[in-house]
Amino acid sequence: MINFKLRESQLKDGRVSLFLDYYPPIINPKTGKSTRREFLKLYYNKKTKDPFEKQKNEIIKAAAEKLRLERYNRLLTGSFEEGSFFAQEESFLDFFKMESKKRATSDGNYNTWKSSYSYFSRFTNNRCKFKDITEKLCRDFKTYLEKTTTLKSEMNKLSANSKHMYYNKFKAAINEAYLQGLISKKFTLRIQSPKAENPFREFLEEDEIKRLMETPCEVDTIKRAALFCIVTGLRVSDVFPLKWSSYSYDSINKHTLRLKSAKMGEFIYHPISEQAFKLMGKIGGKNDQVFRGLKYSANNNKLLERWLHLAGIKKKITWHNFRHTYAVIVIEKHGIYAGKEMLHHKNLKTTEIYSHMKIGQRVKIANSIII
Fold first, then answer.
1. Model's pTM, two decimal places?
2. In this protein, which residues make up the domain named Tyr recombinase (predicted)?
3. Domain range summary for the chain, segments of one domain joined by +
């Protein structure tokens, strides 16, 4: 158990600094070093004879004692965490914004994080310190999302899926702050996210894939990477940084990839076809990027959009829709359990959102019903 006392330190300028003395030492998450002292930034003049200064000294001491009692109460209730008080006066909004930028691996994920940050910033009037984060604030933000209008128009309410996604990103930011020791607990743990609707996930039909293969792209690397996503089902966050060190070949398993998934944080073993291997291009050094120079950017997204347009595809297709396409093909040919394994999902429910039946198959079934 952590014990602490209110102590004083005499400064050279004659003032007395008040601080809390911890035992055993606690870890400062910013420096990574252990310390026994948390300076309260409260000072008083011990040698003054002025009655008003003496009265002021008593007020300052009372404020320090209040902070000590607050720490003690948190210790008793189990909400005290080592280092959690170092960040109290720092901006949670700045932290949230930085976490959003770290997710710039795909357009959909980054835009969702950015929007979540924007709504939370608007909700808090652009001011929120770590010490302001409470369970009540987190619940109030959920209520705010359920009632607010979109950033673009005051006439439109947020969709059910937008509320769900924005709140989940906020929860992820809260959890990350907790893991880094910047707040004392996971304040969103007991709060259920707004309910989402099951959206239709767009995918490409066989004729559309064929048109893409036949249509030249301004940057061949983009074309090869897109088709590679379709025939492997890998997330774009794993395809863009893919290195040749992840590739291996043997006479039994043929072409395989062993890599650490950026989203799951786990190593996956993923067999790929001969066609997928050819799309990777010429074998390079172990540390060479397979799709050299390819990264998530607005310019590359524009090039992808123009290529799809040239192929006559009018659907709104992003990089992640290529994974959807792979999922639909695998599930239709081999079943939903095969889809779960090939998509590396932990739960079957996640795989079920991809279980769309192709148009041709639906037409065939519809025409088979004759009375």
1. 0.55
2. 199-368
3. 3-77, 92-179, 206-366
